[in-house]
Amino acid sequence: MNPFFTGVRETVAPRPGGRHGPLPPLLLGLTAVTGLVDAFSYLVLGHVFVANMTGNVVFLGFALVGAHGFSIGASVVALVSFGLGALAGGEVGVRLRQDRGRQLTASVSGQAALLAVCVVLAAVSAQPVPGGFRYPLIIALAVAMGMQNATVRKLAVPDLATTNVLTTTITAMAADREDGRLQGWGAGRHFTSVVALFTGALVGAALVLHVAMLLPLIAALVLVAAIAVTARLLGQPDAPWVAP
């Protein structure tokens, strides 16, 4: 089979006993969560991302020169909160570095708790979301996504080391070529990340615009909770993939 398609298959449905076990599809699920929550934050909370910090740095530059619709406060709060979440996720990674199953379970369980708080906040908030709810939602979501990205980095699955920075991912996918064609195993894995983020963003935007603003957060919470349960059930101490 072409290495590109092998990479796709091994990411979506890895072989039993593989070095990274169920981690690749679980990380794809977290990538879809990124799309869901960023769709919610951008469309509901104003021009701010809670996972894509590159975008927030750009938005901050726009806001500083007075561009309409961009907020200095929202961008700064998201950046600081994401950093705090990354610190927390990094600490979990240090404490549980010898067991990747427990590391993922602990991190996404904390993420699920924060998403549950956000679901409640969004449910009781008016629309458009007032400042008294907007900033708590930005803080909780950005902390959750910072935790997620720090954990993914600590898990160190090749070609899936991030769940939100796709500029590098797309570059790597395009550069991973043989004889001018996308043949590399890594390119297939990168491709699945792009599809997962796109799907999450597409579904999240559709839910916000055509159904209810709350639903992307509910979908993200359900997906994260499922990932936590799966990691807990499959992350037995004797499983070969739990070792770093």
Work out the helicity level.
over 70%
Report the order of strands and helices. HHHHHHHHH
Tell me the total number of β-strands.
0
* Envelope shape: globular
Radius of gyration: 18 Å
* Class per helix and strand makeup: mainly alpha
Amount of beta strand: under 5%
Low confidence ranges: 179-183
Termini gap: 29 Å
Q: Determine the mean pLDDT.
A: 90
Quick recap of the structure?
The chain has nine helices and no strands.
Can you characterise this structure?
With 244 residues, the chain is an all-alpha fold. It has one domain. Helix content is 71%, strand content 0%. The protein is built from nine helices and no strands. It is globular. Mean pLDDT is 90; it is low at 179-183.
What's the helix and strand layout?
Elements: H1 3-12, H2 23-44, H3 53-64, H4 72-95, H5 100-124, H6 131-155, H7 166-175, H8 185-210, H9 215-234
Helix pairs in contact: 1-8, 2-6, 2-8, 2-9, 3-4, 4-5, 4-6, 5-6, 5-9, 7-8, 8-9
Q: Which characteristics define this entry?
A:
single chain, 244 residues, mainly alpha, 9 helices
